[in-house]
Design goal:
The protein has about 140 residues and is an alpha+beta fold. Helices cover about 30% and strands about 25% of the residues. It has 3 helices and 6 strands; from the N terminus they run H-E-E-H-E-E-E-E-H. It has helices at about 30-45, 70-80, 120-139; strands at about 50-55, 60-65, 90, 95, 100-105, 110-115. The strands form 2 sheets. A 4-stranded antiparallel β-sheet has the order 2-1-6-5, sandwiched between helices. Strands 3-4 form a two-stranded antiparallel sheet. The longest helix is centred in the C-terminal third of the chain and has 19 residues, at about 120-139.
Length: about 140
C-alpha cells in the first residue's frame, strides 16, 4: 500500500435547527422517478422553497419535490410564464409567493423547471440545482 494514500474520512452533516439531519448518500434510489423527486426535494429544502416542479411544454406535471400541494394548475402555467407571455401572481395561505422558471432541453424535449417561494437569491440557487439534477437524471 502506498504510504501517501489516505483513508476516506466520513463527514457527518451539521444539524440544522428545525430540520432533520439526512445523509444524502443514504437517499439513493433505483428508479428515475424516485431519483428526480429526491433531487428536487433536496433543492427545495436546501433553498427553503415551497416546491420545485418540472413541467413539459404542454403544462403537464413531470415531477416535483415531495409535497401535499396539488401542483396541476401550477404546472399548467409554468410554460406560459417561461415564454414570457404571463406573469404569475400566486398566493399561498394569503401570502404572495414568487415563481421562478427556467427552461431546458432534455433528449429533444423542452422542460420547464419552476421554483415557488423563498428569497430571490436562494430560489435562483434552487432552480439551478434542479436544472443540474434534471439534466443528470433525465438526460
Amino acid at each position: 500500500m502506498n504510504s501517501t494514500a489516505r483513508s476516506p474520512i466520513r463527514v457527518t452533516p451539521l444539524p440544522r435547527p428545525g430540520r432533520r439531519v439526512v445523509e444524502r448518500r443514504k437517499q439513493r434510489s433505483k428508479g428515475t422517478g424516485d431519483a428526480i423527486e429526491l433531487a428536487l426535494s433536496a433543492a427545495a429544502d436546501g433553498s427553503e422553497l415551497d416546491v420545485v416542479l418540472i413541467a413539459d411544454d404542454y403544462g403537464m406535471l413531470v415531477a416535483s419535490s415531495c409535497t401535499d400541494l396539488d401542483l396541476e394548475m401550477l404546472a399548467a402555467i409554468t410554460p406560459i410564464v417561461s415564454r414570457g407571455r404571463a406573469k404569475a401572481t400566486i398566493k399561498r395561505n394569503g401570502e404572495h409567493r414568487d415563481l421562478s422558471v427556467k427552461s431546458i432541453k432534455v433528449l429533444g424535449e423542452t422542460l420547464h423547471i419552476a421554483a415557488l417561494g423563498g428569497q430571490p437569491s436562494t430560489r435562483a440557487l434552487g432552480v439551478m440545482r434542479s436544472v443540474t439534477a434534471a439534466r443528470r437524471i433525465l438526460g
